[in-house]
Protein: NADP-dependent oxidoreductase
Organism: Rubrivivax albus
Amino acid sequence: MSLVNQQIQLVSRPMGEPTHDNFKLVEVPVPELQDGQVLVKHLWLSLDPYMRGRMNDGKSYAQPQPLDEVMIGGTAGEVVASKHPDYAPGDPVVGMGGWQLYSVVDGGQRGMMRKVDTTHVPLSHYLGAVGMPGVTAWVGLNHIIAPKAGETMVISAATGAVGSAFGALAKARGCRAVGIAGGPEKCAYAVNELGFDACIDYKAHPDLKSLSKALKDACPDGVDGYFENVGGMIMDAVMLRMNAFGRIAVCGMIAGYNGQPLPMANPALILVSRLKVQGFIVSEHMELWPAALKELGTLVGTGKLRPRESIAEGLAAAPEAFFGLLKGRNFGKQLVKLA
Ligand SMILES: NC(=O)c1ccc[n+]([C@@H]2O[C@H](COP(=O)([O-])OP(=O)(O)OC[C@H]3O[C@@H](n4cnc5c(N)ncnc54)[C@H](OP(=O)(O)O)[C@@H]3O)[C@@H](O)[C@H]2O)c1
């Protein structure tokens, strides 16, 4: 009897915030394996902010998610059947399987799937700290900010998938690490568990003056490197505290992903403080991934980085969990447990 797959497809494009109407859960048969193919059962689905951008039709660095097709997404799972010599049933693998329970993967296609070692690193962390989000933190810190020991590094969305890896990496470079996160619980976790030297609850500072003052207190020597995940007032506040020749890695602007305008209050600070401001996309730096994954795997494997996960149960819970991610309801890496 053939296996039945469940998948969530994008059926319409959101105007502003996504809703359940934009998605449809369908059942489709799992196709017969052909030579060279591998059947993967997904155990974990990664939910990531970039997915919101893919739901739009406009100009971007990546192709839009096609309508009436399975939503794009990173997955971790195990091989259940293989007609490719490099894969055997039981192999733990990560790939881009999408919002579905199974995927059939061409085992020979580079970059589609890789085997991972779960001896010291739990499988789900390959979608977070030891996966794309962790590498994003690594690339932004090392490649763009290029920190020196003793400098002060600041990151917004500090307790999320990218932010938690950034904290550990900045500390490993001998820097002062300061996080910005939403709420006292997240801030306590940033300092007590993630090793940040300080963390500012931006929700307790509703205006620019107050947030900028809190940053001044947390960063007595100013800010040398800023890893931007959010945009808007948070970016304005950090820019006021940047030291001369500071570097800003623009990784994300999640405060604007549902179409909100994000004006910059004082762009003249780029000139006045002689800042380097550079956006980057982690998938355009594949040459850096092996070194990044090695360091991140060691940090997690040795317990120096203990990333937290928010876990939604079952494929049908994915849309709601995704909406929560865009509103900060996640605490750590947002995952969906599929089996
Ligand atoms: N450039 C790249 O290649 C690349 C790759 C991966 C990720 N990214 C970007 O990196 C950022 C973090 O991604 P992630 O996967 O680690 O997500 P995450 O931090 O685990 O989750 C998103 C977090 O963003 C914060 N947030 C949401 N809306 C916000 C708002 N309006 N104002 C302030 N904060 C808000 C929330 O944290 P609080 O509760 O603390 O506000 C939320 O928990 C995103 O911007 C993402 O697009 C970029």
About this structure: The domain at 4-128+308-337 is CATH 3.90.180.10 (Quinone Oxidoreductase; Chain A, domain 1). The chain has two domains: 4-128+308-337, 132-283.
